[in-house]
Specification:
Elements (H helix, E strand, L loop, with lengths): L5 H15 L4 E4 L1 H7 L8 E4 L3 H7 L3 E5 L4 E6 L2 E7 L1 E3 L11 E3 L3 H6 L9 E2 L5 E2 L4 H7 L1 E2 L5 H7 L2 H13 L2 E2 L1 H10 L8 H13 L3 H10 L13 H8 L8 H12 L8 H7 L4 H18 L5 H7 L1 H13 L6 H9 L13 H8 L5 H16 L6 H9 L1
Parallel strand pairs: 2-5, 10-11
Antiparallel strand pairs: 1-2, 1-8, 3-4, 4-5, 6-7, 8-9
Helix pairs in contact: 6-8, 7-9, 7-10, 10-11, 11-12, 12-14, 12-16, 13-14, 14-15, 14-16, 16-17
Length: 397
């Protein structure tokens, strides 16, 4: 297993150098889990008995990315690796960060503080799995189960409740009953967590292959109650959860969610809703465009003006949403219509403001922008050919 995966193979010299210095080192967490699930590995994390200052002595190029929590980034042959010292954590006053971190030499003590059994796995340089908490068994059972006492884990970091629900969706697993009950009991702790962190987990939940399971669990455990704009939207979320289709990107995810919410509140509230979720300005703009295009599309086919305004990627996303909602969709027609547009942006119009001022002998003003919009619309509708002389004749008659 380890010999064939390039991610592990590339990182082996890191493990070897740490072991040569007399310390233990293991691959841990998601990369081990995903390897066992035969999923693609994005990056590898390494845990070690070596303390941060000892890691900095072993490797020439390091960056202190989270040294107070035991993490040092090692730069090795054009790649970077996060190396974290085995640690235990004290009480958590704010349900987010430990009051105190203590470095230890025991792998078991380190894995004990992890969130779920399937993430509390380690693997040595020979591919041997170290599994103190029956994580492999839970992988086989397709079960998300907290390590040890679930309430303790959620008091340590309340975001783990959202992570658990996200893993149900992402991996299409079930949740252990005791773990679910602990979330249900402690869901108000989510209020202590920054929206940015919740948003990351919620978006992954919406993109998961087990989204239906994940959303149903999200509703059942009342986590939605402490998420922006969702407190009074249980009915809309339940309708959304019934949707059977693949959602493959964030724009589609947010657009479909708002589509269901807008049955219960105005779509005009989309921007403040997304702002409350701390979405980026770019993402908010794209989702608003998708909502506008979806409204047009639900009333019939796209016209040239709408396609021009929103662009091909958004138009194709909306076509996915149409299929998702049970309407007929034609990606070929959208491609064909878009590639048949006479222009794709204002810069392609064969006349500019200076030309129009000269032709019409008028000083610049609001009229100029309005006229350019009329010209743009006429070109898109096919009423006007995009040629300078044709446009001059059109505006002077």
């Amino acid at each position: 297993m380890i010999l064939f995966d390039p991610q592990f193979k590339q990182a082996l010299p890191i493990i070897d150098k740490i072991e040569e210095a007399g310390f233990e080192a293991y691959f841990v967490g998601g990369s081990v889990r995903d390897t066992l699930l035969k999923e693609t590995i994005n990056d590898v994390d390494i845990a070690t008995s070596a303390k941060p200052d000892e890691i900095k002595q072993i490797f020439q190029k390091t960056i202190d990315v989270g040294i107070e929590h035991g993490t040092v980034m090692v730069l090795w042959k054009d790649a970077t690796y996060e190396i974290t010292t085995f640690r235990t954590e004290s009480t958590y006053q704010d349900f987010r960060r430990p009051d105190n971190v203590e470095f230890v030499r025991s792998l078991k003590e380190d894995l004990k503080r992890r969130d779920f059994t399937i993430n509390a796995l380690a693997m040595n340089r020979d591919g041997q799995i170290i599994d103190y908490f029956e994580g492999q068994k839970d992988l086989e059972k397709k079960l998300i189960k907290a390590v040890g006492n679930p309430e303790e884990r959620f008091f340590e970091d309340a975001l783990r409740m959202m992570r658990g629900v996200r893993f149900v969706s992402q991996l299409n697993f079930e949740m252990d009953r005791e773990t679910e009950l602990a979330i249900q009991k402690n869901h108000p702790l989510l209020e202590k967590i920054a929206i940015e962190r919740i948003q990351v987990e919620f978006t992954k939940l919406l993109l998961g292959s087990g989204r239906k399971k994940g959303l149903e669990l999200f509703i059942r455990t009342n986590l939605f109650y402490y998420c922006p704009g969702l407190k009074d939207q249980k009915e809309a979320l339940e309708e959304f959860a019934k949707l059977e289709c693949t959602i493959d990107n964030r724009i589609v995810a947010w657009t479909v969610l708002i589509y269901y919410l807008s049955k219960h509140k105005p779509a005009s509230e989309a921007e403040p809703f997304l702002r409350a979720w701390k979405c980026s300005k770019k993402e908010i703009t794209q989702v608003k465009s998708a909502l506008f295009a979806l409204e047009q599309r639900l009333n019939g086919t796209f016209n040239s003006q709408v396609l021009y305004q929103v662009g091909l990627p958004i138009a194709l996303d909306v076509e996915k949403i149409m299929a998702c909602l049970g309407y007929s969709a034609s990606f070929e027609r959208v491609h064909s219509m878009y590639h048949g547009l006479p222009i794709y942006n204002k810069k392609e119009i064969k006349i500019n403001g200076n030309d129009l001022q000269e032709v019409l002998n008028r000083k610049p003003g609001k009229w100029l922008g309005n006229l350019m919009l009329e010209i743009e619309a006429a070109i898109l509708s096919g009423e006007l050919v995009n040629e300078k002389q044709a446009i001059i004749e059109w505006v002077t008659h």
